[in-house]
Amino acid sequence: MKINKRLLSLSEMVDDHYDLVWDCCCDHGLLGIKILTNNVIKEVNFVDVVPDIINQLHDKLTTYGHHLPMDAKWQTRCEDVAQLPLFDRYKSNQLQANQLVIISGVGGELMVEMLTRLMSRYAGLNIDFLLCPVHHTYKLRRTLIELNFKLKQEQLVIENKRGYELMLINQGQGGELTLTGDQLWQPLDEHQQYLAKLITHYQRIVSANGDAEPLVQSALSDYQALYHKLF
Ligand SMILES: C[S@@+](CC[C@H](N)C(=O)[O-])C[C@H]1O[C@@H](n2cnc3c(N)ncnc32)[C@H](O)[C@@H]1O
């Protein structure tokens, strides 16, 4: 099974200490299937809000499931990520279960909404989240900081000239999570180009609207300062 660099990098950030992984916004299910195929995780729940997507994925997994490791367990769930029942399966020892919630491939603003709603039910618990937003990462990071998330690991993946910020976070454990992603940056041309693109994006908003919201102004000045520091 061929998967792209972004999904491969996400799958490599999943180690064997999780009892259960949620592949949220799973669409084709490629990420969760790769994680099960790697044989480090025994159980994956595939979640998407669109019934046809989940029905097709269920059929695919039923047909090709024999290619997965013998003891692999999976479930498909048609559900809004904001409503996930994170502790249904582990009634008696639910707080000991190591769970990883992956949300990948949706916009950063939608992720803000999902996580704000989800954390209103699960705040303060030891749950890892692995995020890969599409755009609006500055706004997402600000919300994550407000929600007291800490950073365990982050990396920048460039694919087809687009940049993706992958972050593994937890409310209880980890180091400081920053607005511009202190651990993302390496002295590489493609990283420099990604940062320059972010700056151009926020410059355009500010020049189209001199009275742009404070978040846009601070994103622009933070990214410019970072650019001068790094490159
Ligand atoms: C572009 S796909 C992402 C596929 C894969 N995770 C990736 O990173 O390539 C986005 C998926 O998110 C699903 N989605 C959007 N909002 C959702 C929500 N609130 N809850 C669950 N799934 C959602 C869509 O139905 C769609 O299948």
Automatic annotation (TrEMBL):
Transmembrane segments: none
Matching Pfam families: Methyltransf_18
Highest taxon, organism lineage: Bacteria
Official protein name in the record: tRNA (Adenine(22)-N(1))-methyltransferase TrmK
